[in-house]
Amino acid sequence: YVKELPRFGRDAKLEVVDGVQYQTQLLKRSSLYPQKSGTFSFDGITARLGIPTSSGRRSGFFFNTQLTTRDVTSNEFAFTVMPLPEPQPASFSGGVGQYAAKVEIDKTRLSTDDALSLQMTIQGDGDQRLLLPPPLDLGEDFETYDANLINSNERPGEDRYRFVKSFQYLIIPNRAGQLVLKPEFTYYSPEEN
Q1: Strand partners, 20
Q2: Which residues of 100-135 are buried (b: 16+ CB within 10 A; e: fewer)?
Q3: Tens of pLDDT along 161-179?
Q4: Is the pLDDT of residue 3 over 60?
Q5: Residues pairing with 52 in the sheet
Q6: 114 and 106 in contact (C-beta within 8 Å)?
Q7: Tens-digit pLDDT profile for residues 26-47
Q8: Distance between the two ends of the chain, CA-based, in angstroms?
Q9: Secondary structure class of 97 (helix, strand, coil)
Q10: Are 181 and 118 in contact, with CB atoms under 8 Å apart?
Q11: Which of 97, 129, 142, 192 has the smallest number of CB atoms closer than 10 Å to its CB?
């Protein structure tokens, strides 16, 4: 899955490669979200460039500049996508990348005929389409209903997209007493393995 990123900093910059100065310009940026493991290769990208050349003749205060066009192609590239580690924990909900989760409840005191609302907000940089509501196994002390997606927001960052998703769970206690909720959100971080 490929998602185009906006080009931040469109100004050319000076780079030195093997002792030679070049002006470089970012032409295209994309976030790649692999859907399966394996080795993937991509062809180079071809761009038509207008290169200024000076005719040497003056035109008023300025030299007369013409453009010469040239097609250039970037290098091909390849990378390997590793499979997810096995076995996957029951609390794994498809998140691959870097994530943070926050949990809030709407009340701390209720009766057995009352409902509690638990909201889990997840921020991350992976493919948000694959992130499912984390399963909420709270044991026999609680009756838990399926999660509802109440907020989904995505924005481009400098090098990848970032998102925030909020899920709301409805929970009813099955018995009286002091009960503890221990919701889990498990994701896989390729950088930390």
Answers
A1: 17
A2: ebebeeeeeeeeeeeebebbbbbebbbbbeebebbb
A3: 889 999 999 999 988 888 8
A4: yes
A5: 67
A6: no
A7: 777 888 888 889 999 988 888 8
A8: 22
A9: coil
A10: yes
A11: 192
